[in-house]
Amino acid sequence: MASHRRPKQPSRTRVTVLTTAAAAAVALSANAANAAPSEKPSKDEVKAKVDALYEQAEQATEKLNGAKEKQEKLQKEISTIQDNVARGQDDLNELRDSIGLAAAAQYRIGTIDSSLQLFLSSNPDDYLDRASTADQLSSQQVEALKKIQEKQRELAQDRAEASEKLKDLASTRTELAKQKKSVQGKLAEAQKLLNTLTAAEKAALAAADARASRSASARVDLGDAPAASARAEAAFQAAQTQLGKPYVYGATGTASYDCSGLTSWAYAQAGITIPRTSQAQANAGTRIYSMSDLKVGDLVIFYGDLHHVGLYAGNGQVLHAPRTGTVVRYESINNMPFQFGVRI
Q1: Radius of gyration from C-alpha coordinates of the chain
Q2: Choosing from 155, 187, 259, 306, which is the catalytic residue?
Q3: Contacts of 160 (CB under 8 A, 6+ apart)
Q4: Any catalytic annotation for residue 308?
């Protein structure tokens, strides 16, 4: 006969766990259903983030420019040293040949002395240290040996200097690659953000930027604003001819510019060479800490780390290459954190 046992009832603990789990699942489902989708950043938020990235890119750009300038300087110095070493080696060979010819002549007539034999078989420094008396050689031979010593010392110093500069060049090239990668990364990140905007939003940003540029241009009073000097005026006039040229990091003209590329190019047209980077340009002349004392053609340095520079245009405006996505234009000096002016 079949057994008719009562099924075992679930324990109170198991019921509680199952009930709690079910309730949690229901709550999660409800939250998922009611959760608002992640909001797309607004046009203004995107602009603020992009502007911050462009500023960071410009900071890296000025470091990149500095590394480029240092690399070029080191390459020139190394080339000069290497040329000196080559010429020095030729001179040393000639001096050695002259001593060798003298020794050969003495050998042929059987008059070569032991001191000259000593020189020919060892370092001339050792010879002079070990020679017992100066009259073992003729005065002409002594002078030749001294010249050889001096030339050897010069060559050793030049080679050591070239070696150090080559190490410095390798380090500079590493820094150059690092800064270039940083700039490109910031620009790519900014572009990715811009790509989230609609065509209408992009057009609205461009229109606002154009209006600001036109407004700044209208406020530039070229008639009454005095120039800092004839050269400063010439530099400013040269920069004016580049209005509308695009900003490109690392560029020095004339198809495109970055901020310090424009200012260094402009002053070059006036016959004055100023440093390549904004930080170096900040030390290229007399600093002017009051905006009211600025004159047309003065350099204007912005931001605490001095990573941006423009030319004072008068009436509270600057002429500069702002950042990626813009062109050489006028802009209010108050749009950026002013540090000081520099009168070249």
Answers
A1: 37
A2: 259
A3: none
A4: yes
